[in-house]
Amino acid sequence: MKKIIFFFLCFAACLWSKNSLAQNSTETTAKLQVSVLTCAAGEDIYTVWGHTAVRVIDSINHTDFVFNFGTFDFNEPNFLAKFIKGDLLYFVSVNNYSEFLNEYQFEKRNVYEQVLKLSTAEKIKWYTALQVNMMGNNRFYLYNFISDNCTTRVKDGLFKNSNFQASSLPVKSYRTEVVTAPYQQGLPWIGLGIDLLLGAYSDQKPNDNQAGFLPFLLHQQIASTGRLVVKENVLTYASEKPISSNSPLYILFALLLFYACCSKWNSLITQRIAKVIDVLLLISFTVGGSLMLYMSLISKHTACYQNYNLMWMHPLYIIALVFYFIPSKAIGQIGLLFLASIAGLIITSYWLPQHFSIEVWALMGIAILLNYRLIEKGRINSLFK
Description:
Helix 4 (120-133) crosses helix 5 (150-161), helix 9 crosses helix 10 and helix 9 (248-264) packs parallel to helix 13 (358-383). A seven-stranded antiparallel sheet has the order 6-4-3-2-1-5-7. Strand 2 and strand 3 form a beta hairpin. The longest helix is centred in the last third of the chain and has 30 residues, at 268-297. It is elongated and about 90 Å long. It folds into two domains: 24-171 and 206-235, no CATH class; 248-383, no CATH class. By secondary structure, it is an alpha+beta fold. The protein contains 13 helices and seven strands.
């Protein structure tokens, strides 16, 4: 009889202990608040797309942390070379919310907070995952500006640790979103440079789960769910007005027209100007083509793979640059070969998986004129042989 009474007492004690622990756990975790922070663009080139971070408030332990996956070190040895190759390690860092805001207030960049409606279990799961991310080498990852960046890390964390279902967004391609941001921030030449470096891989249309790969795309995707956001707080540090800037297109067309006029105007000064432009273009296409080739074939930036711009801008222009100063008809044959490559690109462009903007077409027009001049130079050289 005593054993039976003892058994029931132990059983009751276990039930009480379990209920007590569950109640304490619920009370503790119910005090967690998880938010996604979306930050406006800044003046530096690497900030023109904005920024995404995660805020976690634990009112039981009186902490207010921001987890930031977009941290990198400018003092990293060979920083530029590693960034270009795609070997640069980014890492997650954590700051107090007040410290995080101080930086954006100083830079006059607005911050948009979306407080998420997550279950207690989802909050615990994500907060635990964020803490695990801070341990040792877990902090580091190879940055990819389309598939693995500060925003995709937050997006993927939301997918893995909640029942979040991504909604569709009107995103035509990765290229469109990546290139548009610099233009909107008054950096059109940066936008054009990025457009040239991006390959056919970036012209893919992301699916719903991939579409929120940039800060304000993810912000829009979260907002469009309707039931995921409890409230939104906006911290305004500057008035966000549209930035107007002149498109490179006008300058490129003006250069093409000026170049054509100098080529046809048979005077000493215009012919000298045309020759100077020839040399500058040969150098520019050699350098630009070398970088393009490296990014397309060697770097780990998948967005730059399969770049068909290499058919008209390539490092082989260095050969033409050498023969330009040699009185030989070979320069004409080189120009004819390069011109044939451009013609092939133009003819097949409709079927290629890569989009070419009107600015890129204008550059191709300049390349066509350059190679035409190389052909003419080879013809003139052959007359004096």
